[in-house]
Amino acid sequence: MMSLHNIVASTKMGGSQRHCKSKRTGVKFNVTTNKQFTDTNTVVLFSQCGITDVSPLCDYKRNFTNVNNHIDIAEAGDGVYNSLWQLSLALIFKLLITIFTFGIKVPAGIFIPSMAFGAIMGRMIGIAVEQLAYQYPTLWVFQGACNTGENCVTPGLYAMVGAAACLGGVTRMTVSLVVIMFELTGSVRYIEPLMAAVMASKWVGDALGKEGIYDAHIHLNGYPFLDNKEEFAHTTLAADVMQPRRGEGPLCCVTQDSMTVEELECLLKTTDHNGFPVIVSTESQYLVGFVLRKDLSLGLANARKCQDGVVGSSRALFTSQAPITVTDQTPMETVIDMFRKLGLRQTLVTHNGKILGIITKKDVLRHIKLLANEDPESVLFN
């Protein structure tokens, strides 16, 4: 007779004896373009032009002397206008590349590119507002701040606010995003415009769609995900959601000590379940444990290879694995809370110790769709 410990042990031994050699290959893409703002740190766009700055973004027609070293609003030079053109090209390039790289299996992301989008657009808008304040200083929007003798328009601040707004609209981050931007600046002075931009971007994003980019990508890929922010306040019970329902066919189970290896292999071939409850016998239906499909299949395969005397009539003895169980009268609100906090993939439904059914995370998601008057079959899983 072969025990579950032997099956699992043979699986581990088989895995440790297999040595795979892999070769890393890489593909390098070279893009022929002006890399002035495509490979530059985004923080450069946040900086304020100083007296010694020679960057094209700081090419203003100023006349600094030993007496006059105050940075006032000045007319933009050729370097600034050339930088605006390069920023426009960099924005288009980054946007197109990010669209392709975010959805494919490469080490890329959306966090830094979103900040880059917002920083580029914010810097361009800041330069435009700065030149508008220089050309038309008597406009009512500039009279309050620009008449105090201070630099009333800072393009770097516009870039910072734009980066926060763009990232907030994409990810729906709020307080944490303001803290991140505060760490970049280290100044409490800019918290108010950052908070206003982040909240405005979140409101606009929520008006267009309730999901952020990561939530939408989870649903697009068909991952069974239970959102902690969604509340469930219905009175349904575990017996209303479990599979199989009452009156339907029996649940596919394996017995503790009465199934042969051939019967287990036949069960794996004829079903596609992720795991099987282990019961004492088909007559008693008392729950003993739960075995995953992958552990069972790998254990049986390695047991045939590594152990002598394993034939189709050999018996397999399973030990208890103490699975998470609920009773058939458990409210679904409690069951969903267990799925969220314990990270369960499935839970078994019992009554007086006897197995009745099983509830998977996919069953929970379909039930939530059904209660929301939506088609439960519209939930696609990968």
> Which structural category fits the helices and strands?
mainly alpha
Give the CATH topology of the largest domain. Clc chloride channel
Gross geometry: elongated
Domains counted in the coordinates: how many?
2
Q: Residue share in helices?
A: 40-55%
Strand content: 5-15%
CATH class of the largest domain: Mainly Alpha
CATH architecture of the largest domain: Orthogonal Bundle
Number of helices: 13
State the distance separating the first and last CA atoms. 38 Å
Question: Which whole number gives the mean pLDDT?
Answer: 78
Strand order of the largest sheet: 2-3-4
Question: Main beta sheet: strand number and arrangement?
Answer: 3 strands, mixed
Low-confidence spans: 1-33
Which series of helices and strands comes N to C?
A: EHHHHHHHHHEHEEHEEHEEH
Overall strand count: 8
Radius of gyration: 31 Å
CATH H level of the largest domain: which superfamily? Answer: Clc chloride channel
Subcellular location: Endosome membrane; Membrane
Organism: Rhipicephalus microplus
GO molecular function, one term: voltage-gated chloride channel activity
Transmembrane segments: 84-104
